[in-house]
Amino acid sequence: KSKDFVKSTISLTKVRRKRDVICISMLAPRRFLWSKKKKKEVFKDKEDGLQQQNWRKLMSDIEESGSAVSVLRRRRICGEDLSRDVVLGTVLRFKQMKKWEIVCE
């Protein structure tokens, strides 16, 4: 009986060792796996940077309101210059994002 008892305790300790924590870093949160570094944007010049910011603002306004037509009309009435490239660029971007309600307008 004593041999059986010794064998069973040895097997139990082997199983328990597999579950033990090998190092403390295993318990640490894996924040580095989920975090992404933000890329710094590099513009050709100040004018290009302003155009990019204005376009992003236009995109966010359209997404918030849900209607591209109303936002573009409002901008045109206010006297902002809306080139054909800006309008087509916004429509193409919404098409890429598969927001068909905005594109169909």
Task: Please describe what this structure looks like.
The chain is extended, with a radius of gyration of 30 Å. The chain starts with a helix and ends with a helix. The protein has one domain. The protein contains six helices and no strands. Helix content is 67%, strand content 0%. The protein is an all-alpha fold and 105 residues long.
In short:
The protein is mainly α. The protein is about 65% helix and about 0% strand.
Based on the model shown, name its key terms.
105 residues; mainly alpha; 6 helices; extended
Q: What does the secondary structure layout of this molecule look like, with pairings?
A:
Elements: H1 2-19, H2 31-34, H3 46-65, H4 68-77, H5 84-96, H6 100-104
Helix pairs in contact: 3-4
Q: How far is the first residue's CA from the last residue's CA? A: 84 Å
Q: Please identify the oligomeric state.
A: single chain
Taken together, the total number of domains comes to 1
Low-pLDDT stretches? none
Largest beta sheet, briefly?
Answer: none
**Structural class based on helices, strands and sheet pairing:** mainly alpha
**How many distinct beta strands?**
0
Mean pLDDT: 73
Binned, the helix content reads 55-70%
- What is the C-alpha radius of gyration, as a whole number of Å? 30 Å
Binned strand content = under 5%
The outline comes out as extended
Count of discrete alpha- or pi-helical segments spanning 4 or more residues: 6
Strand and helix order: HHHHHH
